[in-house]
């Protein structure tokens, strides 16, 4: 389909378009034209990815600037999906235009997923793959080979140096599999091909961390220009990603390993002094001169990048007391020993970075400034010593990262030292949390640096919370409703059991046998009436385990077995993958299955249960965070004091975005259908916090149901959905042809003209503001005085 938005020609790779897709494109274009940021909430299953890509690629190709698109998503499967959509779009554009555009698009993921080296790719751990890769590709390894030493190199990486730097990969869209296949055929490294080609690409698709985590962003994303368009897709959890990227946990075990790493480095320094003292002297000279090693060396060789944001880096020489390698190691060992003594506590301690630094200085005479340079100085030393097995130094890297962060940031961070893993534990296992409380810190450079940042997802309500939390201004905030030819999803709130007793996962009554039995009966009744797959979400693993064991004692699970196969998500990724595979098989072969999972787990975020895989989703209880967590309490206090966000408002917002994410799993297209059940009396007051497309579909009569009423309503709904439904029935209502789109635009033009005429008739300007009048008009002054008097 080809149509215009203003003067922009859009090529959309489907013969029909949804009304909400068109509205989404119009608002996206306004945002790009204005050169600002936006928050857009698009209903699940309405083709958000292809809509985004169609508009932005058209914008890139039409405008002379050819602004680069940086598309960030969360999981590997979503990155693959976006690349596949883009590939199909570009093929459609080629067919329509009659020529192939000069266009490159790549996806980037970790070395582990893109490695072709026969021995390295067999490794299971990403850290080990990174270390092995470095031992085969680092500059100093190549220098050794040139000197005639017997060292192994990676032939795939070496072949890249034989090619033109700007033409490692031909124009086109490469999926991750396509990149691997191309690398295999041409014997070149897919990972480094993608890294080196990023400045020459029109579209780059990768994980959030490549832009938000300073340790990675400094290496991967620093060369992008200001006019890039940045998209954060599935961005409902973006604040948590920002916080994780600047937080670090240190345990006693990691400190022991860090000490071992420091001792190994000391040995290596002694060895180098006796064999090649000149190298250490050269490094010292460079540090004295204030030359940044990071700028001089090839960035591909770096052990760790600086963990602080670019604006917070000190642009000066490394302090004198840590310039010599042996002095720096002694300094690090002293700091590690200090941390070990701090771990010997019997009660929880919370302190701010300035308080921690004062304590460090009083006890060890370690100044703040050398701590700020720890990460950078360690990187320089590791490179000078030409270390290969860098995974052995991972714990030491964590300590250096912590030192740099704690000495750089005063506000928005907190140190929490907990002597026990949990409240019930009796054996001490201390852990030091250096936690970021302010999500705005990590994302601020992105908003400052790029002119247009688009935050989008299916579950962002309430929209105003994100600009408030992340401290940015928007030119557009919009939530779209969903247009349907038939009512294809049924959201309901169940507040009572069949015995009319209130149901809730609230702490006071969650283990009450009556509440547990009522929840069990809801699951049993829905497993009896729903065909194929049912997905049940619980607030936490702990609650899921306790309620399932109680259901077993009540005989409820045995009854469910008669209708469905029961499968459970666990914290173990492999077990969950196997459960998911079995669940899908049971849904396809007619046995039917029920999947018990957790609202903040892997299943709730990245897995789609389209068609028979999810005919009903049940949310058992409101998925609040564990409110006794000290880290959460500290963050809530920070939000209240700095951004005027009340604790209850944030907790409620956080719970409802996860509940909405769970509900959205079952509706993956307009030809799909499913039942959405929110089983907790507290949902009744929170329904206005659900996304617009869910809350508008919920009738008033379905917000306070008992179990038997909900089952009767769902049975009637499923019977209606089972009737034949042709795609022709949607035409002109939930899907538009080009003719429908033209009619809609004509109506829009007429409506705008009518509003303009009315505004002029009422004495308003054409922009809707009152026409300018004499500022000394007596009548107006009298009116204002009357208002003041009131």
UniProtKB/TrEMBL annotation:
Superkingdom of origin: Eukaryota
Coiled-coil features, chain-numbered ranges: 248-297
Every Helicase ATP-binding domain range: 7-284
Keyword set, alphabetical order: 4Fe-4S, ATP-binding, Coiled coil, DNA damage, DNA repair, DNA-binding, Helicase, Hydrolase, Iron, Iron-sulfur, Isomerase, Metal-binding, Nucleotide-binding, Nucleus
GO cellular component: nucleotide-excision repair factor 3 complex
Catalytic activity reported: ATP + H2O = ADP + phosphate + H(+)
GO biological process: nucleotide-excision repair; positive regulation of mitotic recombination; transcription by RNA polymerase II
Subcellular location: Nucleus
SMART domains documented for this protein: DEXDc2, HELICc2
Enzyme Commission no: 5.6.2.3
Keyword field contains Nucleotide-binding: yes
Cofactor dependence: [4Fe-4S] cluster
GO MF annotation: an example: 4 iron, 4 sulfur cluster binding
SUPFAM superfamilies, per the entry: P-loop containing nucleoside triphosphate hydrolases (SSF52540)
Keyword Transmembrane helix belongs to the record: no
Catalytic EC class: isomerase
Family (UniProt): Belongs to the helicase family. RAD3/XPD subfamily.
Protein name listed in UniProt: DNA 5'-3' helicase
Species the sequence originates in: Aspergillus nanangensis
């Amino acid at each position: 389909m080809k149509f215009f938005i203003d003067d922009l020609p859009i090529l959309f790779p489907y013969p029909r378009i949804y009304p909400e897709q068109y509205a989404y494109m119009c608002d996206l274009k306004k945002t790009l034209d204005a050169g600002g940021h936006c928050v857009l909430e698009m209903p699940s299953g309405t083709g958000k990815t292809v809509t985004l890509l169609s508009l932005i690629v058209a914008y890139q190709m039409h405008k002379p600037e050819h602004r680069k698109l940086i598309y960030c998503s969360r999981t590997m499967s979503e990155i693959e999906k976006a690349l596949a959509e883009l590939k199909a779009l570009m093929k459609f554009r080629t067919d329509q235009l009659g020529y192939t555009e000069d266009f490159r698009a790549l996806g980037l993921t970790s070395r582990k997923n893109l490695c072709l080296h026969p021995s390295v790719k067999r490794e299971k751990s990403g850290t080990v793959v990174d270390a092995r890769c470095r031992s085969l590709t680092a500059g100093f390894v190549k220098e050794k080979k040139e000197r005639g030493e017997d060292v192994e190199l990676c032939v795939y990486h070496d072949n890249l140096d034989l090619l033109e730097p700007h033409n490692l990969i031909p124009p086109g869209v490469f999926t991750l599999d396509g990149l691997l296949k191309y690398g295999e055929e041409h014997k070149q490294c897919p990972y480094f091909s993608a890294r080196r080609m990023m400045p020459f690409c029109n579209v780059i698709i990768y994980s959030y961390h490549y832009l938000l985590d300073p340790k990675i962003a400094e290496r991967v994303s620093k060369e992008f220009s200001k006019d890039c368009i940045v998209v954060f897709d599935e961005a409902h959890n973006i604040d948590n990603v920002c916080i994780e990227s600047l937080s670090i946990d240190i345990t006693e075990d990691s400190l022991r390993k860090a000490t071992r790493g420091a001792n190994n480095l000391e040995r290596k320094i002694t060895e180098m002094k006796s064999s090649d003292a000149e190298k250490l002297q050269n490094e010292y000279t460079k540090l004295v001169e204030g030359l940044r090693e990071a700028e001089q060396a090839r960035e591909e060789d770096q052990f760790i990048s600086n963990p602080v944001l670019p604006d917070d880096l000190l642009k000066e020489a490394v302090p004198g007391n840590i310039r010599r390698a042996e002095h720096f190691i002694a300094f690090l060992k002293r700091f590690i020993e200090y941390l070990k003594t701090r771990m010997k506590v019997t009660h929880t301690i919370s302190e701010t970075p300035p308080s921690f630094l004062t304590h460090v200085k009083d006890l060890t005479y370690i100044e703040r400034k050398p701590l700020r340079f720890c990460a950078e100085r360690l990187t320089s030393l590791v490179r000078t010593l030409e270390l290969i097995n860098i995974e052995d130094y991972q714990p030491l890297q964590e300590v250096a990262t912590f030192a740099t962060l704690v000495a750089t940031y005063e506000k928005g961070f907190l140190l929490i030292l907990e002597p026990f893993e949990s409240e019930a534990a009796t054996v001490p296992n201390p852990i030091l949390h250096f936690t970021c409380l302010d999500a705005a810190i990590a994302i601020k450079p992105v908003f400052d640096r790029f002119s247009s940042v688009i935050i989008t997802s299916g579950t962002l309500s309430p929209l105003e919370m994100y600009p408030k939390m992340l401290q940015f201004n928007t030119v557009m905030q919009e939530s779209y409703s969903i247009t349907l030819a038939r009512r294809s999803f049924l959201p309901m709130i169940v507040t009572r059991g069949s015995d009319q007793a209130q149901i809730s996962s609230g702490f006071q009554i969650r283990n009450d046998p009556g509440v547990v039995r009522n929840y069990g009966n809801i699951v049993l009744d829905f497993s009896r009436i729903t065909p194929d797959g049912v997905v049940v979400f619980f607030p936490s693993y702990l609650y899921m385990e306790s309620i399932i064991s109680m259901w077993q004692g009540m005989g409820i699970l045995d009854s469910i077995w008669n209708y469905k196969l029961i499968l459970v998500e666990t914290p173990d990724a492999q077990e969950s993958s196997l459960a998911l595979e079995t669940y899908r098989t049971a849904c396809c072969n007619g046995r039917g299955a029920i999947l018990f999972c957790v609202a903040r787990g892997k299943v709730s975020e990245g897995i789609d249960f389209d068609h028979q895989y999810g005919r009903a989703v049940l949310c058992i209880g409101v998925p609040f965070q564990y409110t006794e967590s000290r880290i959460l309490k500290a963050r809530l206090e920070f939000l209240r004091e700095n951004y005027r966000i009340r604790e209850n408002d944030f907790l409620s917002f956080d719970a409802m975005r996860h509940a909405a994410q769970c509900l959205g799993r079952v509706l993956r297209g307009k030809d799909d259908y499913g039942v959405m059940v929110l089983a907790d009396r507290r949902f009744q007051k929170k329904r206005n916090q659900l996304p617009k497309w869910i809350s508008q579909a919920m009738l008033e009569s379905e917000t306070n149901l008992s179990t038997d009423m909900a089952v009767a309503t769902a049975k009637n709904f499923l019977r209606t959905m089972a009737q034949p439904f042709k795609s022709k029935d949607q035409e002109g209502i939930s899907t538009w042809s080009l003719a429908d789109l033209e009619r809609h635009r004509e109506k829009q033009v007429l409506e705008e003209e009518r509003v303009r005429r009315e505004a002029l008739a009422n004495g308003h300007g054409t922009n809707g503001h009152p026409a300018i009048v004499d500022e000394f008009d007596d009548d107006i002054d009298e009116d204002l005085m009357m208002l003041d008097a009131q």
